[in-house]
Amino acid sequence: MKKNVFLSALAAAAVTATGALADGHGGATLAAVKDRGSLKCGISTGLVGFASQDANDEWEGFDVAVCRAVAAAVLGDPTAVEFRPVTNKERFEVLNSGDIDMLSRNTTWTFSRDVDLKLEFVGVNYYDGQGFMVPKELGVSSAKDLDGAPVCIQSGTTTELNLADFFRTNNISYQPVSITTASEAQQAYLAGRCAVYTTDASGLAATRASFENPEDHVVLPEIISKEPLGPLVRHGDSEWGDVVRWSLNTLIAAEELGITSANVGELSAAPTENPEINRLLGTEGNLGEMLGLPADFGAAIIQADGNYGEIFEKYIGENTPIGLSRGLNAQWTDGGLLYAPPFR
Amino acid sequence: MSLIEDRPDSGFTLSKLFNDSRYRGYTFQVIAGIAIIALIAVLIMNATANLERLGKDISFGFLEQPAGYDIYPKLIPYTSQSTHLHAAFVGVMNTLLVAFLGCIAATFFGVVAGVLRLSNNWLLAKLMAVYVEVFRNVPVLLWILLIMQIVAISFANPLDFKGDEPAETLLWGMFAFTTLGIYTPAPVWNPGSGIVVGVFIASIIAMVFYAKYRRKVLFDTGRMLPGWPVMLALFFVPAILAHFVMGQPVGVDYPQMGFFKFEGGALIGGPLIALWLALSLYTGAFIAENVRAGILAISKGQTEAAAALGLRSNRIMSLVVLPQALRVIIPPVISQFLNLTKNSSLAAFIGYQEITGTLMGVTLNQTGRSFEAVLLGMLIYLTISLLISFGGNMYNSSVKLKER
Prior knowledge:
The structure holds 2 protein chains of 2 kinds. By secondary structure, chain A is α/β, with parallel strands linked by helices. Chain A folds into 2 domains: 29-127 and 229-334, Periplasmic binding protein-like II (D-Maltodextrin-Binding Protein, domain 2); 130-225, 3-Layer(aba) Sandwich (D-Maltodextrin-Binding Protein, domain 2). In chain A, helix 3 crosses helix 9 (238-257), helix 3 (62-75) packs antiparallel against helix 13 and helix 9 (238-257) packs across helix 13. Chain A is globular and about 60 Å long. Chain A is built from 14 helices and 14 strands. Chain B is mainly alpha-helical. Chain B is built from 12 helices and 7 strands. Chain B has helices spanning 16-19, 21-53, 84-117, 122-136, 140-154, 193-221, 228-245, 270-296, 300-308, 313-343, 355-367, 370-399, and strands at residues 176-178, 181-184, 186-189, 250-253, 256-257, 262-263, 266-269. The longest helix of chain B has 34 residues, at 84-117. The radius of gyration of chain B is 29 Å and the shape is globular. The model of chain B has no long low-confidence stretch (mean pLDDT 86). Chains A and B meet through helix 1, helix 4, helix 6, strand 10 and helix 7 of A and helix 2 and helix 11 of B.
């Protein structure tokens, strides 16, 4: 008898408890972020140059800088970010469930992710492509010579699908070695579990840079896919999508217009000769108001970590261990693909 | 006049549902039943409403789409152009492979450790106690990761086998221990080997019949026919004879170092070894305790009576104690087999592509159909578990005490 009473009480309690679950997120993300006073940003679990922790356990890197830019734009404070490291497998689930406000985690923009997974890619912060790394001693010079090789591949990525397609269309075989994180891939590759490691070329450069003897490994010339990496938000809140999109565009446009962390204070103090600089920095027009942000949101973004070019050079550029050249990621005026729509 | 009168039955009133002990039980059960149904209904409605709000419908159509990724190892033919459903089957086969190998090895470890823990040899008994306690008190995931690390550290880089003067050489020219896994020689079935295999199967059947005949002779006449020598002869001699009579059709393919890795031979992958060893050692520790409990459950009088009849101690164990102990041992061992099968899902951590890695890993990730994939995965594990229980219970009812 006692058991029955207990069971019914338990059931009743559970019914009332789940009633509360029914309303999840929904309201405007922008308002939620402002209320909370911090931005929840999903990042990589650790990829040198893109998202890694420094000696003080502070997150830094090229992808992290996008989170900081958005926090600076919305809250005026680039440090008001709660970072949430997510794996390849869980990233979209975490974003869609509302646990994070945005994802900035070397994620490739593809049709099915954009449309079927109900995500909104707001732009591209790094134009990448998939490459291969092999030990130099093998003397391999082309990816087409990789017939029969064991290949380390992070499961659940677009690179996994590109890899299968590349080997199939070239009529050569390989043995997939599945691994879950970038650091595990590095370990497996060095231990010889695979003779080849494949991921985005930027990731290969970052991994190679962290090796004891980087010169013992070569990145093959073939780039077998287009991997436009960028920040994304979930469907259904276009206003928030606009905020993240134009925060990213501010970084890119600022480089084009010559606004840097060094001169932003001077340029935003009073209106300048160039009306687009004025609109971007909020000394003219009401672009901030249209987004629901302070008028000087653009200035706050640049003050945080500098413009796109400065961020690139600081975290992954040629003077860092990663040593990536701008390549496709140069401004359109320099023959690259970066092209921010006009601020007007 | 008695003090206690028979109370007149006033008929049924609503308050009796709570006050009358005859009805109260039913009342609460009905209330609890309704509450549980309501709880489940709320959970389902909540899930569908949330999925709808996210704009996600529940559909299994993705199973018909090409998977697009490759899987290793694969026991059935599969290419990256096969469907997601096909990929799930490849995963199921890998789950079954590690579960099958694991259950056999776990039973072996368990029986050996369980029997030896009761041994009179102090050192052996204590060693087995240490094995059992160490393995069953550490989470199995840690054992899996540890053994995977050991494989990665202690085995050689396959590329070290390359060159004119390689840093590493094959053991006896046959086995290569690499971080990719262990390469072993593999049989090659040339024409005519079907007959050799047929002879081998026939000799296995003959062994079963010989065992039955031997028992019958023992029971009828009390005469003991030779056991192991005949069995071993039956196992090896006919097949080897057939092999030579047919002109040696069964060849051996030795692993040869290729450009990137070994070609030829067979590869037992590192993740499979790690998972298999860790799961079977871990589950074996539990089975050892089941075996020990089963043996201790047999009254000492049985052993003493058998000894009084003049049986030697190993015969007491195999003829008197173990057959009775099996009745106690089998039901918990079935649960251990189920645990081992379900624990194989931890393979996702070391990249062994079983059902959790394919259907609930890559497929889930590529299609975003998490709800459907996990639901289907649960159904598959349920089916496998029920089949194992069914088989185990069949065996259990064949050895349990027959009551007439």
